[in-house]
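Re: the multi-chain job from yesterday

Posting the exact lines I submitted so nobody has to dig through the queue logs.
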Amino acid sequence: MNIHSEHSRTRSARLSACFRPDRSDPVMSLFLTAGFPTLEDSLDLILGFEQNGADIIELGMPFSDPLADGPTIQFASQTAIRNGVTISWILDLVREVRKHSSIPIVLMGYLNPLLRYGADRMIRDAADAGVDGFILPDLPVGEMPSIRESIREHGMDLIQLVAPNTSAERMREIDRQSSGFVYCVSVTGVTGAREGEEVSKSVDRFIDRVIENVALNPKMIGFGIKNHENAMQVSKRVDGFIVGSALVEQIRATAMADGHANHAENGQPVADSVETKSSGDWKEELFRFVRHLKFGD
Amino acid sequence: MTAVQTYNQPTANGYFGQFGGRFVPETLIPVLDELIGELERAQQDEQFLAEYHRLLTDYVGRPTKLTLAERLTEHYGRAKIYLKREDLCHTGAHKINNAVGQILLARRMGKTRIIAETGAGQHGVATATVCARFGMECVIYMGEEDMERQRLNVDRMRLLGAEVRGVSSGSKTLKDATNEAIRDWVTNVENTFYIIGSVVGPHPYPMMTRFFHRVIGDETKRQILEREGRLPDVLLACVGGGSNAIGLFYPFLDDPVRIIGVEAAGFGVDSGKTAATMTKGSPGVLHGSLSYLLQDDGGQVELAHSISAGLDYPGVGPEHSYLHDSGRVEYRAVTDDEAMTAVSLVSSMEGIIPAIETAHAFAFLETLMPQTDPDELVVINCSGRGDKDMQTISEYFRDRVDAVAPPAQTTNKA
Ligand SMILES: Cc1ncc(COP(=O)(O)O)c(C=O)c1O
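And the result, structure tokens for all chains:
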């Protein structure tokens, strides 16, 4: 566990509190696609995740062409878009969450819907709704620097990513440009759970390089983490871990088994949505999964 | 020496005015940085350039001819119409100019595996061809709808030794094939080179693809000066992503020449089923660059429609967006029906069956020619031949007995 004196660069007080120096357990950040499996579920899921151990919520803003995502998140995004998710709806959801919770919320999504909404307007409205930061995977350091400045001016953080093939020099630059935390993508590739010994070996080498070069921000590791053991192993030497696809897959699987979501083939939603009645038990099962991710019991 | 160049795009960061850039996951940044460096060195490496030009000559069959379209000229009774015969390139379209160039770069960079996306299949065939020629592993992503309407090209790619992976997400066309190719690239950056088929994608792809296609315009300039002793008055090309158009236009951007790019209107620019990106779109980010884009109010990318698989794309190269906004190039759109009428007209009048993509440029002659004078010169980029489209062409005319000049029937009823 890394000890940070103080992350003065972090603008969001909620994010900053999350990485307080005296903390000993790894920070758990959970990704879910807003409006998946249905619009009605998102508030419950976010609050339930918090109650069951989530420290940060990464709220996915769906895009029609998620080119850094594997089949699981592609499917969730398509479903959410068909459910009618828009940026305005997502900001309303955040306002709703804020009535009950002060968990840090980071909006994660591709640039285009944000540009279409209007970057300045988006940043202003997000700050107003209670958003803490942004992760924009297709906005690497160097492009549209005004977006980062505006996010910071509004008291939020733009979390930048480093990848296994990022050079030491660029890692340091990304560290300087990032705030809130640095998102360490542990493998090259799209989002999705991964298998194997080889992965963890190369992850170790990657973490060595991250520790050497990322000094100004907390470090969160993600991509391919699918259970508690994975999470503990990869987050030992950093501040915490991020679970995305494995959780979204769990959401899909539990909701579906409960008759709450549509069947899917090859990550493709079936044409029309068939609403079947659901017992609601799937959420309990899902929250057990979340608890296990964090606490392992 | 040539005249002083004033056109100087893109910037070092890959921006054509406000358009372009590198909107990609961090994993691709080191690869793009490496590619920028390698491209710059290759452009100054005489050996590299000599090999590229030797392949263009001996393998692609360049220079391609500049053909006077005599009967078309007579038909319209106005300006002289010349065709830049990219349809005569090996594999049947301009796409191979770029595939040859990029695979030479891939080899320089020590990559062993090539991937590409394809719509009409022409870029896929060109890529599979150069992979066969250089003995490299080749994976082509193609939308399932396009695999259906360009079946012949799927068979060609497979015969050439490529693996064709059908893409069933989204529109099942070029946009989704490109998403899937980028996902493969992000995953296999170590050994894989992505040969993008048009002047789209993150910097330096638009600039690099332009470099490998500018031979079209360079040759045209030389040929028209030899033939006519002067520059043409109008240049015309179809625009999907915009590679054949940029190839022809680029060497003329500083000359007093009217330049027109023709997009696919599909059922009509206001029909909701169109691929006229510049006419109906607005700036947005797709596939790594900022450019005009067909999108809804929420910023979700809309499905394009064109009868032509090679133009059925909701985006366009960033340089075209710049040339559009700066007013240097005019962009117009023609419908599926207008393009198909042109397929028929050009085939029966010139003995050249154009690709349906290419036919979009020809279709615009209906509007353009009445505005021209007999002493003027028009050059059309005849970007590809229509053999690959025979299935679509036959079906189209079979369904429409009222269509203009149906192609000659060759059915042999027993
Ligand atoms: C013959 C031909 N012309 C034009 C195009 C459109 O591409 P671009 O606009 O990049 O030239 C294609 C694409 O497949 C093609 O096959």
